[in-house]
Amino acid sequence: MLGLICVDVDGTLIGTGNTVREDVWAALADARLRGVRVALCSGRPAFGNALGYARRLDPDGWHVFQNGASIVNVGSGESLSEPLPEGPLAALLTRAHETGRLLEVYTDDDFGITRPGDLARRHAELLGLPYTPQAPERLVGTRVRAQWVVPLGEAAGVLAEQAPGLDVHPAGSPAMPDTLFISLTRAGIGKGSAVALIAAQYGLPLSRVMMVGDGHNDVTAMRIVGHPVAMGNADAQARAAASHHVSHVDEGGLAQAVRLALTL
What are the pLDDT digits (tens) for 170-180? Predict the structure, then answer.
């Protein structure tokens, strides 16, 4: 039996209805009862729906948010987060104001946006947050991540832009299929670095860790664990990184992965 199961959110834990299947919750609860730690491993921030998911998965455990930039113990509140470098962040804000694109900037517990409007409102709803726009410059605390939120038709152009000093983590959500979320963290920071840190906190070798995901931003974690699992709806990069494959998120693929973890 494995010691740690790491679970992506969009396309893995939640599907097209922005909800979690009851059989998935039941399988995850069974794993915890058997002594397996369960860690959320998401691009989402450590508040709103994602914080609720983390607390239900493992209420006194470590969880990965914001593509590895935010690592939080939701029981103690302890944080191992990594700040964005100031120069690259300033360049992103300048670019956002020049282009009129939506850029979100996050701390561990708050965020600001450069362009209020329907896209920002829909994303706040997806995150389970009230739509109360504030400028990034008004944020208090360490800024750990930035994120472009763009229509799919604009995504290729944004991904082609240079981002010195930063790592780029594109991801989608079944609940907003017309949108790409292009997350930016300090260079060298990703889900892989965060999962390795959490495994070390629990005293577990990576050979006893499973990562379940569906997208490009899950691949750094999938490559370092002993048991990488791709959902049936996974993109080509996630499928290629996986040694196990399960059903589509809307068909309970994550429950299958958890049951597999209990047999390994």
Answer: 988 888 999 99
